[in-house]
Amino acid sequence: MDEQTNATKAKGGYARAEALSPEERKRIAREAALARWDENIPKAEYGSSDRPLRIGDWEIPCYVLNDGRRVLVQRGMMDVLDMKQGTAGRGDGDRLAKFTATKAINPFVSDKLAEVIKNPIVFHIPKGGKAYGYEATILADLCDSVLEARKSGKLHYQQEHIAIRCEMLVRAFAKVGIVALVDEVTGYQEIRHREALQALLDKYLRKEFAAWAKRFPNEFYEQIFRLRQWNWQGRSKNPPQVVAKYTTDIVYARLAPGIVKELEARNPKDDKGNRKAKHHQWLTEDIGHPALERHLYAVIGLMRIADSWDGFKRLLDRAYPKRGDTLQLNLFNDLQTT
Question: What is the pLDDT of the chain when averaged over all its residues?
């Protein structure tokens, strides 16, 4: 009886299948394939969006998958690297993949790393849905590639802000890593507070970010654009190269006697016209930076009341004439800044 029933059901199934249109058959087959694929997607067993990895002022959602892999969510990685968001999780269309394929970075990216970045891990998150990510060590590997590109002088100036982030991350990871190793060897990891390493990472990153603190307010550049009658599109767009010359003339040449000559000697341009550091990084915290800050806000005040570039320059020359080379103030750090 059971055999007869099964045979009847089979015949009924074949009959229904024959009655389907080609489009309906394709749809059913596609849904079945997707269901089988979905079953093979790894699941996040530990972690939640409420407990991200905090790096400075940024957060990267992170998880441990059921196969043991530690992953960082793709968009969080792009945020901490100061990259503009692209189309996440789309293979070659992903922003990270495009970045590693650029002429400056590609020679320093291994084939394995490039392949991993092109094919992010797809996984289920605890609250439902899917996410795209990379094994956590990929962030350190990518930072190494960027810093190698900068060391070789191949980095494009528009990628320098990413290299700055990479340098800060590598330093902080190294410091936290050695602490974690000591804790493991001594057994202290069993009793330390669960947030201890996170707090340590946050401390180190804040120290690194402080070292790279922005010294020039956005308004300084906004006023230059206004007075030159240029279209201001924010600091995300690199200003014309002439703005660097304006900065030297408006700020450094009037800050102290002999300062421009000394800065050029300590912080020269390389063969590609790039400098190893920002000029202000050579200034001391106790004298140089306070003097720079006072001068900048005084200059911005003159800019605000000026109606034209020429008018501003006349006010500037009257209030803060360029300094000669007869006196050298102690504005510089003795140690080289990188």
Answer: 77
- pLDDT number for residue 109: 93
- Looking only at the bridges linking them, the beta strands covering 121-124 and 58-60 are unpaired
What is the rounded (10 degree) CA torsion for 278, 279, 281, 283? Answer: -170
d(CA 162, CA 185): 34
Q: For 3-53, how does the pLDDT look when each residue is reduced to its tens digit (9 = 90+)?
A: 544 444 444 444 555 666 767 666 665 655 544 556 678 998 888 777 888
Contact by Cβ (8 Å): 256, 324: no
3-state secondary structure the chain: CHHHHHHHHHHHHHHHHHHCCHHHHHHHHHHHHHHHHHHCCCEEEECCCCCCEEECCEEECEEEECCCCEEEEHHHHHHHCCCCCCCCCCHHHCHHHHHHCCCCCHHHCCHHHHHHHHCCEEEECCCCCEEEEEECHHHHHHHHHHHHHHHCCCCCHHHHHHHHHHHHHHHHHHHHHHHHHHHHHHCHHHCCCCCHHHHHHHHHHHHHHHHCCCCCCHHHHHHHHHHHCCCCCCCCCCCCCHHHHHHHHHHHHHHCCCHHHHHHHHCCECCCCCECCCHHHHECCCCHHHHHHHHHHHHHHHHHHCCCHHHHHHHHHHHCCCCCCCCCCCCECCCCCC
Strand partners, 130: 124
Distance CA 242, CA 250 (A): 12
Residue 303's CB is within 10 A of a number of other CB atoms, namely 21
Poorest-pLDDT segment among 1-10, 122-131, 216-225, 259-268: 1-10
pTM (2 decimals)?
0.51
Determine the Cα–Cα distance for residues 111 and 40; give it in Å rounded to an integer: 26
Q: Model confidence over 162-189: pLDDT tens digits?
A: 888 888 888 888 877 777 767 776 776 7
The residue among 317, 288, 298 whose CA lies nearest residue 220 is 298
Name 123's bridge partners. Answer: 131
